[in-house]
Description:
By secondary structure, the protein is an alpha/beta fold. 54% of the residues lie in helices and 8% in strands. The chain folds into four domains: 12-160, Rossmann fold (3-Layer(aba) Sandwich); 185-245, Orthogonal Bundle (Helicase, Ruva Protein, domain 3); 252-365, Zinc Finger, Delta Prime, domain 3 (Up-down Bundle), CATH 1.20.272.10; 393-547, no CATH class. The protein is built from 25 helices and eight strands. Strands 2-3-4-1-5 form a five-stranded parallel β-sheet, covered by helices on one side. A three-stranded mixed β-sheet has the order 6-7-8. The termini are far apart. The model is unreliable at 387-400, 534-539, 542-547 and 549-556 (pLDDT under 50).
Amino acid sequence: xxxxxxxxxxxxxxxxxxxxxxxxxxxxxxxxxxxxxxxxxxxxxxxxxxxxxxxxxxxxxxxxxxxxxxxxxxxxxxxxxxxxxxxxxxxxxxxxxxxxxxxxxxxxxxxxxxxxxxxxxxxxxxxxxxxxxxxxxxxxxxxxxxxxxxxxxxxxxxxxxxxxxxxxxxxxxxxxxxxxxxxxxxxxxxxxxxxxxxxxxxxxxxxxxxxxxxxxxxxxxxxxxxxxxxxxxxxxxxxxxxxxxxxxxxxxxxxxxxxxxxxxxxxxxxxxxxxxxxxxxxxxxxxxxxxxxxxxxxxxxxxxxxxxxxxxxxxxxxxxxxxxxxxxxxxxxxxxxxxxxxxxxxxxxxxxxxxxxxxxxxxxxxxxxxxxxxxxxxxxxxxxxxxxxxxxxxxxxxxxxxxxxxxxxxxxxxxxxxxxxxxxxxxxxxxxxxxxxxxxxxxxxxxxxxxxxxxxxxxxxxxxxxxxxxxxxxxxxxxxxxxxxxxxxxxxxxxxxxxxxxxxxxxxxxxxxxxxxxxxxxxxxxxxxxxxxxxxxxxxxxxxxxxxxxxxxxxx
Length: 556
């Protein structure tokens, strides 16, 4: 029969709790302030410690209580006197710890108040440490308030809370307040390495920083994660082991996820995601990990400094920076955050995450297709005009069918705002025709342009380049454009195109003419010949097709 020896196991956060002020990490300002108050014998009757969990509030309260009762007058904490020894053992009769979460009623506080009358037994002060003080009831707060106002000279209250907003302002105003901040990752990482060495164990380089990033700035959280790792791993504690025990995804797996998105491999992307789920990953945490990685890639893009980002995610961050445009990364962040909110109220967070990934996949690959289409259009336009540039005669012909500013102004006079709104709404459907074999050519031709003027019988597009504008105005595509406008807008319309600079100049001319009451007459519907019969290639007849028989604007 195997005999199991009994032994007392002590958690790391208790075993390595600081016994001296200098052992406290990440709260240097608070430590210095409290030490000085003790050295100068300026001890307040009440202190309030507030801050996130695991940042050292209770530890500092214990050290404060231990210090003000230390028998050695030459040291802040000697650690050798009877008072210090009993404080370390947790058996000091003059140091009373109260958990307000379970002792939050009026009667408990009244009992405490009755006891404060008694003088200390072995120390100079009776110290009451009330943890999670925000959990006290309204009545308990009111009962405590009187004692805080006029406490006995031998009593010190140390209140600790993670939710300062729940503490009565009248309580706060009667205490010296100290705000504990989250401990920086470097300090936590160094402390973990020291503890691992003290435990005669080994940890992979960088693994302690992974724990630090998971701790949320809390030393107690970090020690709990480390303790789990020490128990689960008999040999070297690796970064991968830390990721796995905490339900986290490795950077290389995240890269694989994004890589399948950008390469357009939906089935592989879903396979990678399903493999993640096999690790019982926390979906909410996964989303925030992805968001953080994308955010850090943007930070790295604009700073070029790796010190501002999570070093453990460096490979992922650089990958995202090199492969995704900034606007796409911001779009991904917004999508993931939207679904993170939905997951909070969902019975199937895995499904919501899958939908989020599919949405990102569809959006990014749609953008990639459009980018490809734009490049294709630009290449086609450039190629089509390369030969025309050689011929001065053809170049001259093209210049003759370009709209003048005066002609654009007349179109402005003829335009209707409501018609433009309607046409613009219909123009949003252009992407649906990009891969339609019947309409791909003309839809690609118009891609990237914007409707700036519309009338019952015409529409004017503003383009980013002069080449695209001239390609639209080229009469070779005239019949196809007329048929396409009928399909897109519901009415057959003459199509004109100008570049944005030309449009802006025409707007200025319009304003000037308007101010002087010299605007030209609008075009009539009859001025636009929308017949689909073949068009002859003579320049004059092209102009007639554009503006009817009236080729020149009347003198103003």
